[in-house]
Amino acid sequence: MDFNVKKLATEAGLFLTRAVQFTEEKLWQSEKTNLDPDFENLMVRADSTKHWTEKILRQTEILLQPNPIDHTGARIEEFLYEKLDMKAPSRVTNTELLGQHMEDAAKEFGFESPYGSTLVKVGEYERRLGVVEKDFIQTADISFLSPLRNFLEGDWRIISKERRLLENLRLDLDACKTRVKKAKAAEAKAASEAEVVPDFQETRPRNYVLSASASALWTEEVEKAEQELRTAQKEFDRQAEVTRLLLEGISSTHVNHLRCLHEFVEAQAAYYKQCHLHMQELQEELRRVPGGFGRNSNQNEPPPSSEPESASSPVETLTIEEVQAPASGTRKAKVLYDYDAADCSELSLLADEIITVYTMPGMDSDWLVGERGNQRGKVPVTYLELLS
């Protein structure tokens, strides 16, 4: 019991000493030990790393789980399952839920109707997108988010703990410096008073004896304060070296986070690529749905490509070198729909672009020669709107 009381009293004394030192520093009444510039730069770099890691982590979590309420609930659920040493169940993504709603609506409206059959197709692909999204979220969490969390919950906590300890030792060191300074000032004052020869007729000898005794006491106090200062300086230097090593480890953290960032980009690229492929497949499926609206539903659907022309047709061997724009008879045309060239004699088109077109002798009336910069090739007339 006595040991606990003494320990409590010691800790209370240390806390009070540090509080006094901190207050005096804020009031510019006490000197403060400054760290070297390199050490300060390391701490600034560490603080910046922690700040931006938190922001990137939080925003990535929002990207993967857009609804803040669902995101918070998901994190709590994961925490509970982790504490219970159980695997969290797979959650349905918003895209999967949308697909499920579409399929349920198709059952209500009937699969035979154009709307119902289209809902089934779209719902199926939305669920596929949801599965791809779920895989991406899992991959991003393992390869990118987990290392960021590990840094904040592991390395950064250790760094923060050691920095707090370093600050406490710095306060103790400065308090010792202040104590030594005050003790030396008091010793000098007592020594000057003791050097004065007393006048025994006017002053009692007892005052002279007290002055000499006080000077000896202050000399002893100075020696004790200097010993405490040496001890405090040694502890501070040792803790500063430990903290410096931890702060220098931030460079390794950056290298690790850089690798994780590359993995995140790869996962994101694969995710969007897979989504794009699914949407292309869905578009093709929708064009085959009877009574549906295809890509060109707002215009009359262009007729299919004509039968292959004979080998003797001049446009079959159309190349940039052989085709030259006529001096007159060229017109501007606006492309109505995207068109993918079937072979090297044709020119691929993008909707809404403007190209130059003209005819050639012997060319089928369903085709024109199109020119875009140095690219030339035949293009279907039904995909164009001739401009005056």
Automatic annotation (TrEMBL):
<dbReference type="Pfam" id="PF14604">
    <property type="entry name" value="SH3_9"/>
</dbReference>
<dbReference type="GO" id="GO:0005737">
    <property type="term" value="C:cytoplasm"/>
</dbReference>
<comment type="similarity">
    <text>Belongs to the endophilin family.</text>
</comment>
<dbReference type="InterPro" id="IPR050384">
    <property type="entry name" value="Endophilin_SH3RF"/>
</dbReference>
<keyword id="KW-0963">Cytoplasm</keyword>
<dbReference type="GO" id="GO:0016020">
    <property type="term" value="C:membrane"/>
</dbReference>
<dbReference type="GO" id="GO:0061024">
    <property type="term" value="P:membrane organization"/>
</dbReference>
<feature type="domain" description="BAR">
    <location>
        <begin position="24"/>
        <end position="299"/>
    </location>
</feature>
<keyword id="KW-0728">SH3 domain</keyword>
<dbReference type="InterPro" id="IPR001452">
    <property type="entry name" value="SH3_domain"/>
</dbReference>
<dbReference type="InterPro" id="IPR027267">
    <property type="entry name" value="AH/BAR_dom_sf"/>
</dbReference>
<feature type="coiled-coil region">
    <location>
        <begin position="159"/>
        <end position="186"/>
    </location>
</feature>
<keyword id="KW-0175">Coiled coil</keyword>
<feature type="coiled-coil region">
    <location>
        <begin position="215"/>
        <end position="242"/>
    </location>
</feature>
<feature type="domain" description="SH3">
    <location>
        <begin position="328"/>
        <end position="388"/>
    </location>
</feature>
<protein>
    <recommendedName>
        <fullName>Endophilin-B2</fullName>
    </recommendedName>
</protein>
<dbReference type="InterPro" id="IPR036028">
    <property type="entry name" value="SH3-like_dom_sf"/>
</dbReference>
<comment type="subunit">
    <text>Homodimer, and heterodimer with SH3GLB1.</text>
</comment>
<dbReference type="InterPro" id="IPR004148">
    <property type="entry name" value="BAR_dom"/>
</dbReference>
<dbReference type="Pfam" id="PF03114">
    <property type="entry name" value="BAR"/>
</dbReference>
<feature type="region of interest" description="Disordered">
    <location>
        <begin position="290"/>
        <end position="315"/>
    </location>
</feature>
